[in-house]
Specification:
Length: 113
């Protein structure tokens, strides 16, 4: 784990307890990101969509924070949630929208289940 890297509490504990495992995991993520032509904001929005599809509240929070730091507009993040309606269903999309709003509206995140 990099000294300045911020991870949620549980993930941070795993990264500190098993640094070789975490480095391998991080390297896999980097290799996957570099495996094709998708990059920048498009890459971040795809990662957000995957987190939404997986139903990962923590992943949605993380990718939203990263996207905002990379200059992705809030409305683009919300559009990804809305695009989930026909594929994943209205309830999943609404849940994702609330998770995005946790970050964009500065609400404290609910503990991930």
């Amino acid at each position: 784990m990099q000294p300045n890297e911020q991870l949620p509490a549980a993930a941070g504990r795993v990264a500190q307890t098993y640094p070789d495992l975490y480095r391998a995991y991080a390297a896999l993520g980097e290799a996957c990101a570099k495996a094709g032509p998708v990059e920048g904001q498009s890459l971040r929005l795809v990662k957000l969509a995957l987190a939404i599809g997986a139903g990962s509240e923590g992943g949605v929070h993380s990718h939203c924070r990263r996207a905002l730091a990379e200059g992705v507009p809030e409305e683009a993040l919300k559009q990804v949630a809305l695009l989930a309606i026909p594929t994943l269903g209205f309830p999943r999309a609404v849940a994702a929208l609330t998770w995005i709003e946790d970050v964009t509206e500065g609400k404290p995140a609910r503990p991930a289940r």
